[in-house]
Amino acid sequence: MTYAHGKHAEPKTFLSKYIFSFDHKVIAKQFLWYGIFFLLIGGLMALMIRWTLAYPGEAFPVIGNWLFPETGGVIPPDTYSMLFTLHGTIMIFYAITPILIGAFGNYCIPLMIGARDMAFPTLNMLSFHLAALSGLILLSSLFFPLGGAAGGWTSYPTLSTLVGSPGIGQTLWCMAIFVLGASSTMGAVNYITTIISFRAPGMGYFDMPLTVWGLWLTAILNAIFIPVLGAGVMLLIFDRVFGTTFFLAGAAATSGTGDPILFQHVFWIFGHPEVYILILPAWGIVSDFLSFFARKPAFGAKATALAMTTISVLSTLVYGHHMFTTQMSPLLTQSFMTLTMTISIPSAILFANWLGTIYKGSIRFTSPMLFSLGVVFVFGLGGLTGLYLGTVSTDLYLHDTYFVVGHFHYTMAASVLLGGFAAIYFWFPKMFGRMMNETMAKVHFWGTMIGLNGVFFGMMVVGHAGMHRRLYNPFVYEFLQKLIPINTFITYSAFVMGFAQLPFLWNFFHSLVKGKVAESNPWEVGTLEWTLPSPPVNYNFEEIPVVQCGPHEFGNPNLPEGKDFQYQTEKLVEA
Amino acid sequence: MSFWDSIKAPLDISTNGQEIDSLFLYITAWNVFFFLLVITGLFWFSYRYSAKRNKKADYTYGNTKKQLLATLAIGAAVFFAIDLNITRMSNDDMLGKFWNFPGDEEDTIKVEVLAQQWMWNFRYAGADGVFNTEDDILTNHELHIPVGKKVEFRVTSKDVIHSFYLPNARLKVDAMPGRISRLWFEPTQTGTFDIACAEMCGTHHYLMQGKMIVHSQEEYLAWLGEAQTVANYANDNENIDNFWGWKWETNK
Q1: How far does Cα B173 stand from its chain's mean position?
Q2: pTM here?
Q3: CATH 2.40.50.140 fits A27-531, yes or no
Q4: Same structural domain for residues B90 and B118?
Q5: Phi/psi at A368 (nearest 5 deg)?
Q6: A352: closest chain B residue by CA
Q7: Do B71 and A300 touch (CB under 8 A)?
Q8: A354-376 burial code (b ≥16 CB/10 A, e <16)
Q9: Is B69 found in the same domain as B92?
Q10: B243 part of a folded domain
Q11: Which positions in chain B touch A302 (Cβ < 8 Å)?
Q12: Which whole-number Å values give the CA distances from B157 to A442, B114, B194, B211, in the listed order?
C-alpha cells in the first residue's frame, strides 16, 4: 500500500479523535450511536402509533401528558400523521441505513478486505457530518408551526405539495432527505472504490466474505438510485418553494400542469432498490454467520454471491408493482408482475444455500447465530408474502392495507433489524474490546422474536381482513370493528417487542465499560479482522496481509487436532 | 363471533371478488408448503446438528458445478411451476374480468366519482343521460346502486391522491388529480356497505368514509325517481362548482 510511509500520527485531542476523525472505525461508531439514537426515537413513535390503534382516544401512558398537554395526553390526528410519516422515514433512513450500512459498512469493509482505511477518508468524515446535519434538519422540523411532515414516508404529491401540506415541515423533510442522500452517495462511492482497489493481495472477489459482497452490492445500488430520490425531492422542493408544477395537475394546478404520478415513478425507481439496499447487507452478514457458527464452509458461497447480484439487478426492474392501483396499462402490469416473480429464483437459491450451510454442521448457538437463524425465519415469511402483492389481481384488494405493512416490516424491519443485531453482537468485541453478555442477548432475541411475529403477522391478518393503512381510528368503519381485539393484541406484541430492547440497551452500555475483556478472536473465525487485536490499532494492519484462502475455511479434515478453522492469511491445508 | 369469523375478509358481494379470494388461497397453499419446508429444515438441522449432538461438522464445499446446478434447478422449478402459474391466473382474471370493461351496447349504471379532502362526490347522468348537465343527480357520501347490474365508475380527485376502495368488492383504484381512472363491478347482494379511502390524503383520511347502498332493482328505480325530482328543483345551477363532471368516454 502506498501510504505506508505517509501514515499520520494517531490523533490525540478529543475533537480530532471523536468528532473530526478520518478513521473508518471511529466513523463506524459515530454511525452506530446515531443509528441507535434514531432507532429509539423511531421505536417510541411506533409504540405511540400502536397505542392509538388499540386505544383510540385514550391518553398515551406515562409521557402522554407531557408530550400532548392540550389534549390531556391523547395523540391528536395531525400528530398521528406526523408519527407514522417520521416513523417510516427515521427507521429506513436514520436507523437501519446508518447501522447496517454506515456503521458496519465502514467498520467491516476495510478490516475484512485487509485495508488500512477507506479510499477517501475525508469524504467518509463528511458523509457522517452530512448525515448528522440531515438528522438535525429532520428533528427540527417538528418544532415549526404546523409541525413536521405528515404525508407518509412516501410523501406522494399532491398531498406533499402546498395543496396538502402547507407547513414548512414538509419542505424541511425534503431537504433532510436530500442532504442524507448526498451523505449516502458519498459513502457509496467510497465503499465501491475501496472494495475494488484496496483488497489485500491475493483476495479475489469470491474470496471476500459475503458480508462485504452484500455491502458492495448495496453501495452500488445506493450510488445509482439515491440520486434519483434526490432529484425527486428536489423537484418537490421546487414545487413547494418556487411555484413550479412538476407534480401538480387538475384543479390543483393553477398554472401549467404536471403529473403527481411522475413522482411515484421517480420515488419507486429509487424505492424498490432501496428495499434491497437495506436487506443486502443483512443477507451477506447472515450468509457469513451461518457458516461461521455451523463451523462449516458456506454452502454454494459463489452461488450466494451471484444470487445476491442477480437480485440487485432484478430489483431495478420491478418498481411498477408499487403502482398497480394507479391503473397503468395491462402490458406494464403484466411485465412488472412477471419480472417481480423472477426474484423468487435467486431468493430460492439463497434459502437453499442457507439451509445447505447448516446441514451437517456443528452449530454453536451464540447470539449472532440465533439472530441469523431468526433472519432466515422472518425473511421466509416476508419474502413469501410478497407474492400476493406482486400479483396484480390480489394486489387490487391488498394494496394500501395492513397486509402491505406487515409484509414490508417482515422484510425490511424484522429481517434487517435482526441482521443488524447479529452484527452488533458479533463485532462488538472487535469494536470495543469487550464481550457482550450472552444470557441477556438470548433474552433479547426471544423477546424480540415473539414480539415482532405478533406485531407483523397480526398486521397481515388485519390487512387481509381489509383494514387499510394510516388510519387514526380504523373503527369508524363498520367492517373493521370486529378487528378491535386483534389490533389490541398487535399493540401488546409491540410493547413486548419494545420492552425486549431494554436488555439489549442495558447489555450494550454495561458491556462497554464492564464487559469481559475480549480476546482477539473470541468467535474462532478466520476472516481478516480477527487476525488483529481487539480493538484494532490505528491504521489496522501493521503489515498488509496476503490472502491465501477463502473466508469460510471450517472443519477441514486436514487441520491439526483441536483446530477447526484457519485464517484467510494461512495457506489452505491439504493432506 | 368466533376468532376465525373475526379475522375473515369482509363479505364479498361482487361477481368477481371470488377470483381474488381463490387466487389468494392458491398462493397461500404454496406459501404454506414452502414455509414449512424452510422451517422444517431450519428447526430440524438446528436440533440435529447442534454442536452438542454433532461434534464435528462435515467438510463440504458447495461450489462444485453439481451443487450450483442443483440450487439453480430449485429456483427454476419454483419459477416455472408456481410463479408463472400465478402470473397466468392473475393475468386471465385481470384481462378477462377486472379490466374487461362493459361494452358500449351494454346497459350499465354509470357513476362519476370525485374525491376530495375528505368526502366522496358521486354524479349520475340524470334523465338526459348526459354527464355534467343541469339535471345530473349529485350525492355525496352515499352511493346508490341496484343489485345484479354492472356498475361503472370513472374516478378522479379534486385535490390530493385518494383511493376509491370497496372492501366488499375486493377492489380499489386511485383517484388522481388530472387523471380519470376506471373501475367496474356487479353487486350480487343488497345491503349497506363501506366505501373507504385507501390512500393517505391528510389529517382526516380516516374519516373519508362513504356508504354504498345496494338496492333491489325496484327500490333503486324508486330512489332514482326521487333523486331526479330533488335534482330538478334543488340543483344549484348558478354554482359553477356543481359542474365538476365531464363527458363520459366510452370503453374501447
Answers
A1: 7
A2: 0.94
A3: no
A4: no
A5: -60, -35
A6: B71
A7: yes
A8: bbbbbbbbbbbbbbbbbbbbbbb
A9: yes
A10: no
A11: 63, 68
A12: 52, 5, 19, 18
The number of folded domains in chain B is: 2
How much is the ipTM here?
0.94
> One digit per residue, pLDDT tens: chain A, 575 residues?
444 445 667 788 888 888 889 999 999 999 999 999 999 999 999 999 999 999 988 999 989 889 888 888 999 999 999 999 999 999 999 999 999 999 999 999 999 999 999 999 999 999 999 999 999 999 999 999 888 999 999 999 989 999 889 889 999 999 999 999 999 999 999 999 999 999 999 999 999 999 999 999 999 999 999 999 999 999 999 999 998 889 988 766 666 688 999 999 999 999 999 999 999 999 999 999 999 999 999 998 988 999 999 999 999 999 999 999 999 888 999 999 999 999 999 999 999 999 999 999 999 999 999 999 999 999 999 999 999 999 999 999 999 999 999 999 999 999 999 999 999 999 999 999 999 999 999 999 999 999 999 999 999 999 999 999 999 999 999 999 999 999 999 999 999 999 999 999 999 999 999 999 999 999 999 999 999 998 999 899 989 999 999 999 998 888 888 888 999 999 988 87
The answer to whether residue A147 neighbours chain B at the CB level (below 8 Å) is no
CB contacts, 8 Å: A485 with chain B:
6
Residues whose CB falls within 8 Å of the CB of residue A249, separated by 6 or more in sequence, listed in order: A158, A257, A258, A259, A260, B176, B177, B178, B179
Q: Judge if the upstream peptide bond of residue A171 is cis by omega within 30 degrees of 0.
A: no
Residues of chain B found within 8 Å of residue A260, distances taken between Cβ atoms: 161, 176-178
Could you tell me whether strands B181-185 and B151-157 are parallel, antiparallel, or unpaired per DSSP bridges? antiparallel
Q: Kindly state whether residues B91 and B183 are assigned to the same domain.
A: no
Q: Which CA distances in Å does B196 have to A81, A156, A476, B10? A: 18, 19, 10, 13
CATH number at residue B192: 2.60.40.420
> Residue A342's closest chain B neighbor by CA?
B79
Q: Which of A345, A373, A397 sits opposite B79 (nearest CB)?
A: A345
Domain check: are B142 and B166 in the same one?
yes
Domain containing B25: what range? 11-98
Judging contacts by C-beta atoms under 8 Å, the chain B residues touching residue A159 are 160-161, 200-202
CA nearest to A259 within chain B: B178
